[in-house]
């Protein structure tokens, strides 16, 4: 069947039909870059007869890979199965397994996620008797990741003058243990693949010959090791097609390098360049707003998008008093959509940092509106799910220490900390894994709890060959007493855990029915490599509001988008200890551009003039990105929070607090400009439960500022209260943090 090119504009068609020389599609958001990749793959197979297994497509999410498969399946039934498509990590995992013997790996190697990796580092620190405070596992993990991204031998890590020898010792031991456990971390997947390709000429030739076409989406967010991999794989046919947008490079903190796309022609001087300028996603107003923000970046390739779409509704900027009011805005918007007969799936809420989701979730829950948080605590990160997977991993590779230690006393079987410490010492002394230590120790002593555990694992291992994956999972849950322990708990939490386990076993059933290779290893690989941009839960995708960080939203689109927390310090984000770094601000700007350009019909930005931020109540000013929007495309709701033009420039600002307008300055007490007699009394439900009544003039206590007097009530629920504290001046405090003195 021929593919339909009528749904492509001329430059898109040019890119889809371009022959075998290198190709770069360089274009702004929503211009159809991903669509070009999908159509190009379909065209290669359907029109040019390229076997799907000779095409490698790298997508940003597994979901995008899935979509590409579906599209291809529709065009060329039966072809999609063989298409090599996936994220960088999934692609490398697959190739490493395929060529494991050449690369010196076990075929069923385990992939450690970030939590597993940290657990391994913690163990290394323990055995090397090094201090976790001085060498926090998280930062060691970061150094390891960075070294691998840069293709630096981990043992050659440069960690600064003083620490380098220590860090190298930790990392060397870590690498040794990972090898003993047959485990690879995320960084390894790409690092090992690149090293294999660059050191093994025969392998490189073989793979580079096999892949006749290579296509990479979101190329602006590739890092150095990923670039090296692509270059090696494209070294024979050079039929490489990359698409991307330097304005949407938002993973610098993970080593992404925009130069990879900007300098593409340095690697391929003959590359054909296609630029796409028509945006099909957003309204004119949304596009102008997005352009206003990105065009101020100091370092970018100039490009402007246009659209045939409607002018559309103005971009709304809502100013709220507190983050709770902001959460109410989300609820009201969702309800209004429902009342208009639209789907809740049309609505997405973005925020800059994960911590913002809690308040939003609470409000949605209270309003009984279904939602899902993408990339939060994922289904596969839940304790019971990880426990079952850890059992399955141990059954496949008992040397997997991290998994073994996870389940050695789960459910509780009387193997206490002392025993585990002894095992760890023994393993460290003998230079082998915990499983060996378990066996040795239980043999010496006999008839003990450790012996029962070893017996249990061995008897389960004996059943692996006879059972399919879901059958094995059920047997594990039953014979380890895991299910019985949860049933005995008889609490709602335990019930929820049982449901999650049932869901997990159900997903294995489905996996076994559909997968090309229905093995445990393949299943584990799939769940470990899910990216931030896909939730683990597949149920109930419809009629549900989506919450996610802006980072996870890349490549996606929604009819209605709310970007919450559009405040200075939060978006653009600035950590408490950081100095303003122009490079970081640039990345924040690109992030705002990504956020705004996800919206198709309506874009709503919200900000709160006070917000609890890492436990502190903070006065906030609206984000500079709001100030940059073209006035005629914006509708302000709830006041602009404008700065007064009199007095010192930018020294203060005016707030609308419902019935009161207040002029506020950083260094001086606020001045009420006008009021329509705000409330003089408020009933407040305390955090600890119980109600108190506060009035203007009353003495109150606050943990940090001590005793003060209520001056005024603001809006919000619970209300904000202005309190004059002798020695601290006037502070705005949320009422439930005050006690009558
Ligand atoms: P991003 O930069 O956000 O990743 P993109 O450039 O990859 O965006 P796509 O996601 O491929 O853009 O396309 C954006 C939207 O426009 C999609 O809904 C797509 O179906 C639609 N679209 C793209 N090209 C066309 C076209 N020629 N005709 C109609 N719709 C199109
Ligand atoms: Mg895209």
UniProtKB/TrEMBL annotation:
CDD domains from the entry?
A: DEXQc_UvrD
Where, by residue number, does the polypeptide cross the bilayer?
Answer: none
Family matches, as InterPro entries: DExx_box_DNA_helicase_dom_sf, DNA_helicase_UvrD-like_C, DNA_helicase_UvrD/REP, P-loop_NTPase, UvrD-like_ATP-bd
The Gene Ontology biological process annotation of the record reads: recombinational repair
| Residues involved in ATP binding | 27-34
Q: Which GO terms describe its molecular function?
A: 3'-5' DNA helicase activity; ATP binding; ATP hydrolysis activity; DNA binding
Q: What is its EC number?
A: 5.6.2.4
Pfam families per the UniProt record, alphabetical: UvrD-helicase, UvrD_C
Tell me the protein's name. DNA 3'-5' helicase
The root-end lineage is: Bacteria, Pseudomonadati, Myxococcota, Polyangia, Polyangiales
């Amino acid at each position: 069947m021929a593919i339909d090119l009528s749904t492509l504009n001329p430059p898109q068609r040019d890119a889809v039909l371009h022959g075998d020389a290198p190709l770069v599609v360089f274009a702004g958001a929503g211009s159809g870059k991903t669509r070009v990749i999908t159509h190009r793959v379909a065209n290669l197979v359907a029109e040019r007869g390229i076997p799907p297994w000779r095409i490698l497509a790298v997508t940003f999410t597994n979901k995008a890979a899935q979509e590409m498969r579906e599209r291809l399946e529709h065009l060329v039934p039966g072809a999609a199965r063989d298409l090599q498509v996936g994220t960088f990590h999934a692609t490398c995992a697959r190739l490493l397994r395929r060529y494991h013997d050449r690369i010196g790996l076990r075929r069923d190697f385990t992939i450690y996620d970030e939590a597993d990796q940290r657990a391994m580092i913690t163990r290394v620190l323990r055995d090397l008797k090094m201090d976790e405070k001085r060498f926090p596992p998280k930062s060691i993990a970061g150094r390891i990741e960075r070294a691998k991204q840069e293709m630096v031998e981990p043992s050659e890590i440069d960690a600064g003058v003083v620490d380098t020898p220590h860090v190298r010792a930790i990392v060397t031991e870590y690498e040794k243990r990972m090898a003993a456990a047959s485990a690879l971390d995320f960084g390894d997947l790409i690092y090992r693949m690149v090293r294999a390709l660059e050191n093994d000429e025969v392998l490189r030739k073989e793979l580079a010959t096999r892949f006749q076409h290579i296509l990479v989406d979101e190329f602006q967010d590739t890092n150095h090791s990923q670039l090296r991999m692509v270059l090696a794989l494209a070294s024979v046919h050079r039929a490489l097609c990359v698409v991307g947008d330097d304005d949407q490079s938002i993973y610098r903190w993970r080593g992404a390098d925009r130069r990879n796309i900007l300098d593409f022609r340095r690697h391929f001087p003959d590359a054909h360049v296609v630029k796409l300028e028509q945006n099909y996603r957003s309204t004119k107003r949304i596009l102008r707003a997005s352009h206003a923000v990105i065009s101020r970046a100091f370092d970018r390739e100039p490009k402007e998008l246009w659209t045939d779409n409607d002018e559309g509704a103005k971009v709304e900027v809502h100013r709220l008093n507190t983050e709770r009011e902001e959460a109410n805005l989300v609820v009201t918007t969702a309800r209004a959509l429902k009342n208009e007969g639209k789907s809740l799936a049309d609505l997405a809420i973005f925020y800059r940092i994960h911590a913002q989701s809690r308040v939003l979730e609470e409000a949605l829950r209270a309003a009984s509106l279904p939602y899902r948080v993408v990339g939060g605590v994922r289904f596969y990160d839940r304790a019971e799910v990880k426990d079952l997977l850890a059992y399955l991993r141990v059954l496949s590779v008992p040397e997997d220490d991290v998994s073994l230690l996870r389940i050695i006393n789960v459910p509780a079987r009387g193997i206490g900390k002392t025993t585990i410490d002894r095992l760890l010492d023994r393993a460290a002394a003998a230079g082998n894994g915990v499983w060996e230590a378990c066996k040795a120790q239980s043999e010496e002593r006999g008839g003990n709890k450790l012996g029962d555990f070893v017996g249990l694992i061995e008897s389960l291992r004996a059943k692996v060959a006879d059972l399919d994956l879901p059958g094995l999972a059920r047997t594990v849950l039953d014979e380890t007493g895991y299910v019985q322990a949860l049933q005995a708990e008889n609490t709602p939490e335990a019930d929820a855990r049982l449901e999650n386990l049932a869901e997990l076993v159900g997903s294995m059933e489905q996996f076994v029915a559909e997968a090309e290779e229905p093995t445990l290893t393949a299943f584990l690989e799939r769940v470990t490599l899910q990216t931030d941009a896909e939730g683990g839960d597949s149920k109930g995708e419809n009629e549900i509001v989506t919450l996610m960080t802006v980072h996870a939203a890349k490549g996606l689109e929604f009819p209605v988008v709310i970007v919450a927390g559009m405040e200075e310090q939060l978006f653009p984000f600035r950590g408490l200890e950081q100095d303003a770094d122009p490079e970081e601000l640039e990345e924040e700007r690109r992030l705002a551009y990504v956020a705004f350009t996800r919206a198709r019909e309506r874009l709503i930005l919200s900000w709160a003039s006070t917000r609890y931020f890492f436990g502190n109540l903070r006065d906030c000013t609206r984000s500079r990105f709001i100030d940059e929007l073209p006035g005629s495309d914006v509708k302000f709701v709830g006041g602009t929070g404008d700065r007064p033009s009199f007095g010192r420039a930018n020294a203060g600002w005016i707030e609308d607090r419902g019935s009161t307008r207040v002029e506020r300055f950083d260094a001086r007490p606020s001045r009420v400009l006008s009021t329509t007699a705000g409330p003089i009394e408020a009933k407040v439900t305390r955090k600890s439960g119980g109600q108190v009544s506060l009035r203007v003039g009353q003495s109150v206590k606050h943990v940090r500022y001590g005793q003060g007097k209520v001056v005024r009530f603001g809006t919000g629920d619970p209300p904000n209260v202005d309190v004059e504290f002798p020695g601290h001046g006037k502070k705005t405090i949320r009422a439930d943090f005050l006690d009558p003195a």
